[in-house]
Give the backbone structure.
Amino acid sequence: MAEPVRYIDRTRDYYLSQGYEKPYRWAHFDEVPFTPLTKPLSECRATLVSTSDVAVRGADGEGRDRSEEMLVGNAYSIPSDIPVERLFSRQEHYDKYATHLDDVNSYFPISRLKEKVAEGRLASLAPRCHGVYTSYSQRRTLEVDAPEVLRRCREDEVDIAILTPV
Amino acid sequence: MSLVARHLEENGIPTVMIATAKDIVEECGVARLLFVDFPLGNPCGVPFDEDMQSDILERALSLLETAEAPRTTVVAPYTWPEGEDWKKTIFTEEQPFLEGEAYDNWMAAKERYRKLKKEGKA
């Protein structure tokens, strides 16, 4: 297996070649918080959080996006009981030469999660899953978006969160 | 996304991340990472391969059970079915990452951020 792509180096070189001189400063921390799992997964309520720009097609077929109505900062929610056929992604930041985003479950595995619940591996899926639009401002993510996702997780009595960046 | 993971962990919610950009996630540092060595866009498995997607999710769930300390990274045992050539061409001049409308959207977002920053709001 070839080595993983070094995106930090690769994007810095790429944007330098495009004439941008100031490289993006990726978030870096020495300390990493950790909460141990304290009960069996079969008793846990799970949610999904993603930066895949997943959105809901309108019931009227005109592409009205209900998720926007719940937008706070860059955080929004998707009702978990929505049929997967109505979900799609508007994400543009993916490797369009190698793949596509036509299968929601390849970046927002909501059907697979429902199967784990049906199998008893998880107790339940929270009533809402969440999206966060990628922001250039790390401060805004820390001060607005992350607390909003936490607030919604607490409201829904979430035990574990699965995060899928795209 | 790593910043959100960290915030949830700090506040008592265990998280697991399923991601394709290992270096970016590890630079920030998260509690648990399942690294899937696939192109940007499909961290949770090959499109329409339900068995693989189910297995990848199971590996993420197992990681929640087994990780004992932060920065635990597990590598999913999969390679991209069409080979590894995508690794050579991502973010190169031959294959611009964003083109046309996507590029314009990105520049507009960047401009909005610059403006907010100037006003001290970002």
